[in-house]
Amino acid sequence: MADFNITDTVDITDVNCPITFVKAKVALEELNDGDILEIRLNDGEPVQNVPRSLKEEGHKVLELTKNDDGTYRLIVQKVGD
User: Which residue is catalytic, options 4, 10, 13, 17?
Assistant: First the structure.
């Protein structure tokens, strides 16, 4: 696992799609260009859809790793304002 200078963290394990993407997008909107957001999300639809949707929005997915508890850690860098 690489070391990143995480600007903010959001846990979206308590919500279902499509709200997972909405919460991740809102968290990114509050950051500055180049900032890095750590997102904790569940397996299934969230891990399939959130990284893809954020890439489609133009952001850079830096890492996606599975945690020991079955959740995932997604590291995204904000691109553009």
Answer: 17
DSSP-assigned beta bridge partners for residue 11: 40
Q: What is the pLDDT of residue 7?
A: 93
* Whole-number average pLDDT of the chain: 93
pLDDT under 50: residue ranges of the chain: none
Q: Among this protein's residues, is 53 annotated catalytic?
A: no
> Could you tell me if 8 and 32 are in contact, meaning their C-beta atoms sit under 8 angstroms apart?
no
Q: What are phi and psi of 40, to 5 degrees?
A: -105, 125
Domains of the chain: 8-77 (3.30.110.40)
pLDDT at 11: 96
